[in-house]
Amino acid sequence: MHEVILSVGIDIGTSTTQLIFSRLTIENRATSYTVPRIDIVEKEVVYRSKIYFTPLKSATEIDAEAVKKIVREEYRAAGMTPGELRTGAVIITGETARKRNANEVLAALSDLAGDFVVATAGPDLESVLSARGAGADALSKREHTVIANLDVGGGTSNIALYEKGALRGTSCLDIGGRLIKVEQDRLSYIYPKIRDLARSHGISISVGEAADEKKLYAVCRLMAAQLAQALHLIQPDGDHAGLYTNAGRPLPETPRIRGVTYSGGVADCVYQPPGGDVFRYGDVGVLLGRAIREDPDLGRVERYEALETIRATVVGAGTHTTEVSGSTIRYERNKLPIKNVPILKVSEEEEASLETLKASILDQMPLYMPEGKAEQIAIAFTGEKRTGFAEIQALAAAVTESAKEVIRSRHPLIVVVENDIGKALGNALNVMLQHEKDVICIDGIKTLSGDYIDIGEPIAGGQVLPVVIKTLIFNS
Which of 72, 206, 365, 424 has the fewest Cβ atoms within 10 angstroms? Predict the structure, then answer.
């Protein structure tokens, strides 16, 4: 079986909105008389849209009609129709995700563009998506080192830390190129946190004053220094804690960062310093890029080239892998199908002990609680080396202890493992939860942090479930 399908990624960010279309070739690699195994064997970007400024009605509202117009026009320019697209993602990121009508815009775009992954990417999830789009995860694995990707956009800087391919932490600061805006050579907007940061270092800036390149570069150097502090390259100052988005947490101090990649709109100004008018984009993005490039502390770790810069997130929004679960599984038929469920992935290193497995689930859970309540998630790990009865019982106990937020929610408890223990683990979870919680436990599926999963209705006489892993990354 050989099939070609089309995919789209749509990213509505703080500063820019863009689309990307790709062609995915899938094949059944299983032999005759065996359970089908369908993989993507080739991926090709076939169209990249123009990069638009994200249209807003006001400081608190996205211009939904203008966004839909962009999408329609780019579909026409690409020669695509919604009916031709089989998969894809619509993602609202950065400051735009905080707009009061963000969810309504997502719903409208999903109906317009197709039945895809739809998510308002909070700062932690956006950090993961942009880092993987930039290739930081694969780079850290290939180089056997610790890499941080800094996705420096218009409103925020999302940071993801990878050690040998495994995610070790995420963070987000209110540092970005459009936090100071310039119109007709005068300051038209200053984000309060940045105004306060400048003031604490003796720099006074106010709306309406002339845009002084030297003064604004000094402010951008302060912002770059905050990024160095976030990477633990220097000690944090008194301003640092207040610059985390939504009072978020810093990166862990270990492992020590050995290299960095940069993505986001400001990244191009880091890697390729532009000449000419520094305020050409109506903000301080060019100056911030220069400040990051010239910061002595950020310069103490190796700077690697990113696979993608301004398109890192959107390029990550277009591929999927279709699989079939193992046959030793447990599921609730009346809860299927389930679509667009984000994966909370426990790395193999964190799975080494039950204590670190529990800690990983507890540490990541806030990523999937944007409003303080657990969303539907799937907890994923390999399940290797835990095949005996006692080991599976202990594993089930660890999951129930660490996934209490999900268990208390209205959503079923979904567990995805690679090893052939789905049915035994699912039954153990069901017993521990006294048959009062819907449990879906499938095996034979490999996932990554940042993936989404669709679980279809049972096939092959109920022995297996069709599974779609929507991997928000193009360079895997």
Answer: 206
Q: Tell me which residue of 315, 322, 332, 302 sits closest to 426, measured CA to CA.
A: 332
Based on the fold, state whether residues 139 and 268 are members of the same structural domain: yes
Determine the 3-state secondary structure of 354 from DSSP.
Answer: helix
Closest C-alpha among 83, 13, 91, 10 to residue 47? 10
- Which residues of the chain register pLDDT less than 70? 1-2, 26-40, 86-89, 93-99, 107, 110-125, 311-333, 370-371, 457-466, 468-476
Q: Cα angle vertex 474, ends 25, 371, to 5°?
A: 120
CB 135 within 8 A of CB 27: no
Q: Parallel, antiparallel, or unpaired for β 338-345 and 378-381? A: parallel
Q: CB atoms < 10 A from the CB of 195, how many? A: 19
CATH number for the domain that contains residue 58:
3.30.420.40
Q: How far apart are CA 151 and CA 393, in angstroms?
A: 41
pTM higher than the cut 0.85 = no
pLDDT for position 395 = 93
pLDDT at 96: 67
Interatomic CA distance for residues 413 and 407, integer angstroms: 6
Distance CA 138, CA 165 (A): 6
Q: Is residue 476 part of a domain?
A: no
Q: Exposed/middle/buried for 33, CB within 10 Å: 0-12, 13-18, 19+?
A: exposed
Q: Single out the residue in 121, 137, 165 at which a domain terminates.
A: 121
Residue 113 shares a structural domain with residue 251: no
Question: In angstroms, what CA-CA distances link 147 with 48, 94, 115, 231, 254?
Answer: 28, 22, 34, 10, 12
Looking at the structure, do residues 291 and 149 belong to the same domain, yes or no? yes
End-to-end CA distance of the chain: 22
Q: Distance (Å, rounded) from C-alpha 474 to C-alpha 441?
A: 28
Domain count, the chain: 3
Q: Are residues 332 and 305 in the same domain?
A: no
Sign of CA dihedral 232, 173, 217, 204: negative
Other CB atoms within a 10 A radius of the CB of residue 351 amount to: 20
- Residue numbers of the domain that contains 203: 125-310
Beta strands in 153-205 (DSSP E): 157-163, 166-173, 180-183, 186-190
Quote the tokens at residue 340. Answer: 């667009």
